[in-house]
Amino acid sequence: MLENIFVVAKQSVMGFLSGFLPEASLPFISSFLSIAPILGIFPLLFALTTIFERKGLGRIQNRRGPNRVGIPMTDIRIAGFGQFIADGIKSLTKEDIVPSSADKLIHFLAPVALIIPVLLMFSVLPFGKNLVPLDMKNGLLFFFAVGAASELSIFMAGWSSRNKYSLLGAMRAIAQMISYEMPFILSSLVVVMAAGSLSLVDIAEAQTGGIWNWHVFTPWGLLGMILFFIAAMAEANRSPFDLPEGESELVAGYFTEYSGFKFAIFFMAEYLGLFAALSVWITLFFGGWNGPFGQYSLLPSYLWFMLKLVLCIFFIIWIRGTMPRIRMDQLMNFAWKFMLPMCLINLLGAGSGYYIRQTFPQSPLAGWFFEWLVVGTALFWIWLELGDRIAGKALTQKREYRYADQ
Amino acid sequence: MQSAFYILALLTIAGALGAMNFKRLVHCVLSLVVCFAGLAGLYLNLNAQFAGLVQLLVYVGAVAILVVFAMLLTRNAEDAPQNAGSTDWYLGLGVASMVFLILAFAVQGSELGAAETGKLSDPSVKAIGKSLMTTYVLPLEAMALLLTSALIGAVVIAKGPEEGGKP
To answer: Under 8 Å CB-to-CB from A136, ≥6 apart: which residues?
Structure first.
């Protein structure tokens, strides 16, 4: 009952409306009913995330974070959770400043061109069983294709502002996103190989039946999971890859010259892109909407999905509070000398893992064991070997501190 | 279906016209991107999902960025606005109309021209991959070799002569 509540609700609304609305308008109404919850839920999640992030970072950095704004006209503070509404109203009412030498049209179009692809990314994600706005058979490809389109709007923002910090930030962002696009796509290919489909719905369904069917519990899945996460962080310009907007170097990067609600749109697009990437991460490696207990689902599928997404969001806040920002040359070296070869080797690992499992048709457990023994060991050894090359033996040998040890 | 085609065709043609006629180079590139995106939409409208999405991924995602990078790194983008179009445009017109005529005859002569729009079967990614790995494996390998050598050549040119060594 609770599992299908949204599907049933949409069907009954459509049945009610088809009684008196013209036939031609029904597809539009149907699309609207699928889109509206996405437009409602994810921006709200973004607003809540800003509060959680500020509070979480405050806790990590031994300070309090926002805890004042509550319900206006009263003394109720609700632990500072009124802050995002105040921020929203503030950015709506702020003056929109456009530099006088800016390219006005492109300066205006850049946030629009950024938010559209970011919102389109959500259209192929399976949020629950039978809960997908657009069941495309090339859904994963659609996600990457649309995501790639957002790079150009960052260039539009940086170039049209006519500000050296903006342009430098945009160039950094584009260089970073182009470099990490390859590992981003290649690391997800192992799952496509395993599921035999590019549709995210099929990929989520291939992992039903309990936590041991999730792709993360195979050697290539574990490696792919790590690589995909790193590449997704870099694609979203998220810490520790936040060089394009490094405050200490570039003011605010490509959106330095944006104010008011346009700034808020850039801010929101960044987080929504991150949520979409994390949702794909969950779908590819952590079973998507599947609960961990097989047929005992306990919760409806969409709640499992949201639970996983919220856990991921807390994880990335933790990472942001922990990792320092890396340097530009480290960023490029890491992408081309570690991530890319590792992704290609992982494809090989996924293929050989498949054949190892094929040799034990009677006992899946033995196949699983030998897969880990052979592929897992090989991948782990290559990881250490490649990592040593890029990090200068820092992975396997004790690091020497020149002054601190004395 | 029909109205979507007209909107996308209008977008594509407007993008191409803008790419030729804008005064500033960056505007031309952005207009060209509109043309690419319109083409991707046309492919999707023709039920060719894979071709459309790859068009978006490769042209909007990579080729446009490459053009932008080349432009910003090699020349001053803040140059005085100038007409990017060539003066002997009638030559271009002749070449373009000839290419169009050849393509039109080829399409009309093949069986694809006779098929009804929108009724074409959508080749799955699996089928494309299978034919690339069996029937067309030699062209694929040749292409891979070519691209690899181009990549190595680009790296060699970009690195320049080694310090203290022979160029």
So the answer is: A124, A142, A199, B49
Q: Give the ipTM.
A: 0.79
Token pair for B47? 């039920």
CA distance A171 to A150: 14
**pLDDT tens-place string over residues A342-366:** 999 999 988 888 888 888 878 778 8
Same domain, A317 and A194: yes
Instruction: Write out the residue range of the structural domain in which residue A59 sits.
Output: 48-93
Mean predicted lDDT score pLDDT of chain A: 84
Angle between helix A340-358 and helix A377-391 axes, rounded to 10 deg: 170
**Position A385 in a domain:** yes
pLDDT given at position B152:
92
For B53, the closest of A141, A156, A196 (CB atoms) is A141
In A, which residues are within 8 Å of B27 by CB distance? 106
Confidence category of residue A394, pLDDT binned at 50, 70, 90: low
Q: How far is B69 from chain A (nearest CA, A)?
A: 8
**A64 with A130, same domain?**
no
Q: What is the CATH number of domain B1-76+118-123?
A: 1.20.120.1200
Residue to substitute from A123, A151, A163, A193, interface B, most B β-carbons within 10 A: A151
Q: What is the pLDDT of residue A278?
A: 92
| Tokens (6 digits) for A42 | 């994810």
Rounded CA separation A202/A131 (Å): 13
- Pick among A114, A134, A146, A152 to test the B interface (most B CBs inside 10 A): A152
Residue in A138, A142, A159 nearest the CB of B26:
A159
Q: Which residues of B touch A198 (CB under 8 A)?
A: 125
pLDDT of residue A168: 84
Q: How far apart are CA B123 and CA B133, in angstroms?
A: 15
Residue of B nearest to A171 (CA): B69
Shared domain for A289 and A330, answered yes or no, is yes
8 Å CB contact between A233 and A177: no
Query: What is the C-alpha separation between A127 and A5, in angstroms, rounded?
Result: 13
Does the CB of A336 have a partner CB in chain B at under 8 Å? no
Contact B53 A106 (CB under 8 A): no
